From TrEMBL:
InterPro entries: PyrdxlP-dep_Trfase, PyrdxlP-dep_Trfase_major, PyrdxlP-dep_Trfase_small, Ser_HO-MeTrfase-like, SHMT-like_dom. Keywords: Pyridoxal phosphate. This is Serine hydroxymethyltransferase-like domain-containing protein. Its cofactor is pyridoxal 5'-phosphate.
Amino acid sequence: MNSLGVIKNFDKDLYAYFVKEIERQHGSISFIPDENSTSPICASIMGSILVNSVNTLTLGKVDSLEALTVKRLCEVFEAPFASVKTVTIEAASRVVFNALTSRGDVIMSLDLRKKEHCNTENLAFRFVNFGIDPETQELNMDHVEKLALENRPKLIIISPVNYSLPIDFLRFSKIAKEVGALLWCDLSQTASLTAAGVIDNPMKYADIVTFSTHGAMQGPQSAVILCKKELSGVIQRTENLLGHTGLLSPQLSSLAARLHEMKTEGFKNYCMDVLENAKALAKGLEAGGMKIIGSKTQSHLVMIDTRNCAISARGAQELLADLGIHVRIAQVLTDNPNIKYDAVRFSSLPATTRGIKASQMEKLGMLIGQFLSKPDDENGKALLSKVSGYTSTLPALEKKYFDQSVAKLISGELED
């Protein structure tokens, strides 16, 4: 069934919204990981007959569909235990906090990540920040160890949303053990790269690993908790107490399919291209006059220090959106509480999904840098022209990364 055709004839107002969104997605280039295109296999399953099926799962009872999904999660991420009961990463984070901490505990966190999820009276903690060294713009592990010894945290959190360099998970694990803390890593924006093996897997060192499965991972809206076997019982009990009894059949099925898809060679090639595109983007931005936070990126992430821009981070975000470039902004904390960076964040994930090559990414980066250095009409028109030129030929998804059967599905070649 052509759902857009049905909507066009049935609901003109809703159809107008669809048309506007189609034009936005196809006529612009997003550098926001949450806007990465969903796998067509997942999208197909989410709109299948399974929407009429409702799972009623309770603690200790797992149906075959959830068991299959959990099995694949453990295989792909090399985890001893996996749970997929929560719909959002915020909910999964609160499960971890409720399961492993008590009110008033000390929490050490990179850039104070996860503090925003502590919004109830029971989740009141003393957060201690650790960030990058202001001089090297890298994590200083000796300083992290010093902070841990001084504060004796119950939990150490690594959520590298604003950090593009390799993380020494082994050193973090040793520090956590030294002070009697648990180590929690959140991979929401790097889950795909981790699964493909192109960046290090923290599951070998961490007690808890969490991530969302949509956006960067291109799956359905849900969140995953991985942990060591000895923590599985308290995680499951807490999920049940907080009312997280399981996902619906379409979500579970599409996640299982996405995990199966992530075992293909095409998926690994895609993740390697994500890294290459990020490096090319950083090179172009530097050529355009921007200063990259940190040394050479080794992830999907590129961050620019807006002190080198002619406009603020918020201004950069809004002006770039007018030219068809969608980005996020952030404040990067450092080890010195008096030094913070306002930054513009770029992720190479969505653009790579659409098929942008490294040479194109470098050119885009240079034009973006030139515009942010001097946001006049000439630089704006040059950037808009390049965006229009690229998007006019780009698909919503580049078929070269998919298994042959998936590529056929995108082309509408599969028979009923």
